[in-house]
């Protein structure tokens, strides 16, 4: 390119000056001699060896050519830089596309992440940058045209101007093509991201609907209290557990429905243990002994008999005042007593187990003391209920959930093969009778 400028300069200079040929030659001859790059062309030497100063027109042309040369070099560097940028973008976009395909089967929950993968910048920014570069080149071309028009008597060589326009046109075409490609890729990535997000949302919605259906199917009881817990085997691993614990209490009433034909003894319908005292409250019928109520490991024998394989409603009451207790079966009070752990408050923060007697809080069960049968409507109050209230529950004329422990589905867990099943206790009891 630099040699081209020098050749053009010499051709132009040959139109106004003459270079002597061989001695004795007639006429005028024009000789083009290659001049090394960087040679000062601001002056010429005549045939006598005297230095001649350049004319203003030649000086202006020289400045124009120098400016054109610098402009061309800058444009060349810009083109190289843009080619590098385009190559980098092609590489990054190819990697992004490959990465997006490899992650096509994965489910992403974080939608705020950049879906363009590891692209160093957004395609919109790249498009804007390329557009600015193209506009800058156009501005330079207009500046050169304006410079040529303002130069008095100076003319820009047509072939150089055409070459510059051709290069700029090619660059503009390449930039526009790349801009179009980037816009298409950006649109494609956006569409793929939108489709992926839609698929993920649809999957989540399906899962939520399925969960809702399962929850509805598990809630098969007509009401939260219409279910029973079945403990069919005498083992040390079948049991139920009440999720709620007890506050400190100075009196209580415990009522439940029982059905068992186990012998000898029905086992332990329920037990309440606290740290330091596993037998804080226990109802047990073990071996050939009668049913017993334990409070703080103190014992009172109850005149109850429920091992005939029918449903029975039983209630026991106790108050710390003189340790007074009562025992009810099917709404009838069958026994009372006192001095059962008098003036002892029931300790809080323990564990209520259905079907097993605790040797440590929540565990170490003994199979010989396990309850065998079915139980329902285990409710507990922090006061002594009136006989009329107990009778109403026993004959199914009223239902009173416990204010400390109510019998509800979500409040009862079963373990080791124990099961929960739907039960309308009053209808089932009438059928038994």
UniProtKB/TrEMBL annotation:
Sequence segments annotated as region (Disordered): 99-124
The protein, known as: Neuronal pentraxin-2-like isoform X2
Domain annotation Pentraxin (PTX): ranges: 225-426
InterPro entries from the UniProt entry: Neuronal_Pentraxin_Related, Pentaxin_CS, PTX_dom
Keywords for this protein: Calcium, Coiled coil, Disulfide bond, Glycoprotein, Metal-binding, Signal
Gene: LOC109097029
Pfam families: Pentaxin
Coiled-coil region(s): 172-217
Compositionally biased tracts (Basic and acidic residues): 99-112
Keyword Signal on entry: yes
Record keyword Protein biosynthesis present: no
Signal sequence extent: 1-21
UniProt GO molecular function: metal ion binding
